[in-house]
Amino acid sequence: MNTAVLDSSVLVLNRSFQPIHVTSLRRAFTLLYQGVAQAIDEQYRLFDFQSWAALSAELYGESIGTPTKRIRVPRVVVLVAFDRLPRMRVRFSRHNIYLRDDSTCQYCGKRLPRAELNLDHVVPRSKGGCTSWENVVCSCIPCNLRKANRTPDEAGLVLLKRPVRPKWNPGFRPTGKGHRSWLPFLTLLDASYWNTELREE
After folding, report:
1. Residue 185 has what DSSP assignment?
2. Residue 130 structural domain
3. Pick from 114, 102, 90, 107: which is nearest to 154 by CA?
4. Do the domain assignments include residue 200?
5. Are residues 82 and 124 located together in one domain of the fold?
6. Range of weakest confidence among 73-82, 94-103, 163-172
């Protein structure tokens, strides 16, 4: 069995179809087999382990082999009994500022390795600026040196975007390349579309 495939990523949703984290395919199959989760297909149909395993893997691109058959790889699973809303308050940390700003200098727009970035107070602390989501941004070292102890206006710099507190939960915000099948579930708006109770007429 291909270990790299078993270590690949699967998006986990709560019972309300909201993303809560990313797990490995190995763990996702364990959740399915134990009845803790169900797989979801492109038509938003839910499958337990037996019904998922009964699907014809030949119809789909990704599958893994067992001693007796091939099983389609699920890329999204839904927990059966977990409906807690994701924690929406994002910890104010260096890691999460880099995530919010996509490791991109907010003055010149260069995306750089974290070792080549600093955190900059937009309004310097010496001028009353606070250390908060709304006043700290990623900055490359040359832009940081150019700005020094000045505001962006004073240094002739322009912010790419106004810094704000992010709304995502770093526990499930995917980094790197995800899967196309994740897209309908990566925002609360899309998740609520699929989970809104319809009126009977």
Report:
1. G
2. 94-155
3. 107
4. no
5. no
6. 163-172
pLDDT above 90 coverage of the chain, percent? 39
| CA distance linking residue 84 with residue 176, whole number of Å | 26
Cα 114 to chain centroid, rounded: 19
Cα–Cα distance for residue pair 47/55, rounded to 1 Å: 10
Q: How many domains does the chain have?
A: 2
| Spatial CA neighbour of 182 closest among 19, 14, 36, 68 | 19
Query: Among 83, 143, 140, which residue's Cα sits nearest to residue 117?
Result: 140
Nearest-Å Rg of the Cα atoms of the chain is 22
d(C-alpha 131, C-alpha 123), whole Å? 9
Cβ count near 69 (within 10 Å): 12
Which tokens is 19 given? 């993303």
| pLDDT, tens only, 24-80 | 888 999 999 999 999 988 878 899 998 888 886 656 667 777 777 788 888 889 999
Query: What single letter denotes the amino acid at residue 44?
Result: Y
| Count, residues in the chain | 201
* pTM assigned to the model: 0.50
CATH of the domain at 104: 1.10.30.50
Pairing of strands 76-79, 9-13: parallel
Decide if 156 contacts 137 (C-beta within 8 A). no
The answer to whether residues 101 and 80 belong to one domain is no
**Structure-block tokens of residue 182:** 């994740």
